[in-house]
Amino acid sequence: MALKELISKLLPLVSGGASAVGALRKRLIDMRADDHGADRLTALEKTFELQAQLNETMDVQLTVLQVQLAKLRKTVQFLLIALIATATLAAIALAAAFMR
After folding, report:
1. What average pLDDT score do residues 50-76 get?
2. 3-state SS string over 35-62?
3. What is the pLDDT of residue 88?
4. How wide is the angle at C-alpha 73 spanned by C-alphas 11 and 8, nearest 5°?
5. Are 43 and 25 in contact (CB under 8 A)?
6. What phi and psi, each to the nearest 5 degrees, are found at residue 65?
7. 48 exposed, middle or buried (CB, 10 Å; 0-12, 13-18, 19+)?
8. How far apart (Å, rounded) are the C-alpha atoms in residues 95 and 56?
9. Which of 43, 10, 45, 48 is nearest to 24 (CA)?
10. Which tens digits make up the pLDDT trace of 6-62?
11. Measured between alpha carbons, how far is 38 from 44 in angstroms, rounded to an integer?
């Protein structure tokens, strides 16, 4: 849960970072025609976009994992109840056999 909360808090920052880098890139390109700096800013912008996509993918995967873990928990709880019921019935049957 903590990881999901952290990702949800960081997602707007990373998403906003990509647009901020894009705006900064446009202004810097207007100020000077340095291709090397523009290439670096383009690479930085793409990196932010990839990070945002990765965060979204991780969020989806965490959601799927949480759903599967919830199903597994319910199954284990059911099996535990069934095991307790079976053990109780076996103890009653054993007690009845010894009383005869």
Report:
1. 91
2. HHHHHHHHHHHHHHHHHHHHHHHHHHHH
3. 97
4. 5
5. no
6. -65, -40
7. buried
8. 59
9. 45
10. 666 666 666 666 666 666 666 666 655 556 666 777 788 888 888 888 888 888 899
11. 10
Size (the chain), residues = 100
Tokens found for residue 9: 């808090």
Q: Whose structure tokens read 């599967």?
A: 68
Please answer whether residues 11 and 42 qualify as being in contact, where contact means their C-beta atoms are separated by less than 8 angstroms: no
Specify the pTM: 0.50
Task: Say how many CA atoms lie within 13 Å of 75 toward its Cβ.
Answer: 6
Q: Domains of the chain: which residue ranges?
A: 2-99
